[in-house]
Amino acid sequence: MWRILRLIAGTLGVLALVVFVYLVASVAGAIYPGHADSGRAPGNTERIYLLTTLLHADFAIPVDDAVRDRFAHLAADGIPIFNPNLKFLVFGWGSHAFYTTARNLTDIRPGPTFTAVTGDNSVVRMVPAGDITGLENAFAVDLPAGGTERLLDFIEDSIAGFRNNHEILPGKGLGTGDVFFVANGGFHIFRPCNIWAADGLRVAGLNTGKWTPTTHSLLLGLRLHSPQALQD
Length: 232
Fold this sequence. Notes:
Blueprint: H1 2-31, E1 33-34, E2 46-52, E3 57-62, H2 65-70, E4 88-95, H3 96-99, H4 110-118, E5 120-129, E6 138-143, H5 147-158, E7 179-187, H6 193-204, E8 208-209, H7 215-225, E9 230-231
Helix pairs in contact: 1-7, 5-6
């Protein structure tokens, strides 16, 4: 009996150490700079928002006529692109097994979590939304001129066959009018959703942390390397 208890205690200790090292590494990765893919273009900044939870960050893109035209083909999928109440399109990337089943922290289950940690196919979630600017978890981010278009290019490139033959996963929405697209790239513990978000911000023209797997490290990297961009 005591041997089993010692084994359990030792396993929990190792897991705690791994989590601690991972979190410390995420802070170090935020401090080390990851430079933008392109220089700052002349012109006015463009505001988007990061919607954050404890584990995840989404992009919230303001909807204007250009965005409606860009995504007009999604109306055929039942997405309300031309609804006058549509103010933002929210995009996130994540593990197929985990992201499509865990709407809240209370929904987290061992099986999908293990799959996400060890390696899974990815999905992109799109949520049509009204005004999100007053939410406590909405962080305003000012991109350099042209950054929104570059970010949308990045998001579209993340969705498998988006311009020609995208695939929406049936019955996987979490009840908010959202849809999940089959995405490109693999998800695992060293490339979770916040790494994707940081990649998108660099494509859009912002410096971030080099490796930011947690929401905290993602925001920390922005504060350190693009302090003019993040509006708390």
